[in-house]
Amino acid sequence: MPNCARANSRHLCGAYGHNLGVFLLVSIFCTSHVFGQPTKPQLVIDSVNVRQEGVVSFSTLALGPDSRADCPVPQFTVAQTDDQAFRLCIDMASIQQVRFNAFTLTAYLVSAKGTAREAYKYQITGNPAGSFRDSPVRVSFHVKIDSNTFPGSILMPVYNAAAADLLTVEKQNEPAYVSVSGTTPLQIHLGNVADTLPIAVTDVTVSEDCPRCWTRIASSVSEKNPLTVDPGTSANLLLNLSPNTIPALMQGALAIKTDVPHDTLSLILTYHTVPGGSDRRQTVLVKVRFGPGLIGLGLALCGGIALGLLAKYQLTGKLGKQDERALHAILTALVLGVIAEFVGIMLTAYGNSRLVIFGLDIDPRQLFPAFILAILVSGGAAVVSWIKELFGKTS
């Protein structure tokens, strides 16, 4: 019995010693493995003030090691720490707008020293506040390893979906003139504020107050053919306007004042900042006036001259001066009518002047005003006096 107890004791001691040895070996292996692993760097992005118009704060999520070894430009924006120990690479194609006005991007931290170029992947989230526009700004960052800190800075884009309209539009002082004969090109000047990101206009949608007045309104701008407006510059958005002749002339028949539009076009511009900006929409109003074109004005002039000469003959019994031949009087009236129409158009369209007849501010580029002007010029003083008397009696 004692021999049996001693045998069991030796067996238990041997098993205990074996397990203890295995435990020590595993502990030594795990400890050496842990201490042999390199310490992962911690990336910290500092908050940035954007032109005293707002602030962007950043949060960083480590996604682990990555196999990336290079950061080709322009796909990446690259910067180094001050001691050139690390490179920070921002993937411009990864920029996304997310909820609550935030934006995200993917960044890589690459060791710039040593034979083993280790890379680590991060997701950076920007949280903007304020009224600033999408802009490139210089942002400070820090790489922390154990007790060491490696500072640096990088020029990167920041975004603010809550900002106001990004495009500036040149003020329209007077309605644009659109001929009812053929297609009229119309240029709209779009601007972009300096020290911001480029803007790409990708779509133009047009709605009209008078849909029946148009056969076609077209623009070449599309997703595949965007209009780019660089910071601090302007670009022309081209529209090709094709009116529907008769409805357009009827629309402007009684609107003879030069500052009264015949129709107003509402342009909805879809655009985004480059790179990575979210789609925005901005409405631009364009006022237009329809004109009959040269043929229409010529017919109105001829009709007005004929009626003016006829009225003069009825009032005075002659077409021109005393003993003036009829053909000479007709040709004189025609020349004077053309000159009066030309001067009226030049003064109102290019001279910032107004043509006022009987207290009415008229546009000589319209059919009815051109017709009335031709009557007064060809009819002379007799017709003018008769019309004044007629207005005096009616008033």
UniProtKB/TrEMBL annotation:
User: Which residue windows are transmembrane per the record?
Assistant: 290-313, 325-347, 367-387
Keywords, alphabetical = Membrane, Transmembrane, Transmembrane helix
Which domain of life does the protein's organism represent? Answer: Bacteria
Write the protein's name.
Uncharacterized protein
Q: What is the lineage of its organism?
A: Bacteria, Pseudomonadati, Acidobacteriota, Terriglobia, Terriglobales
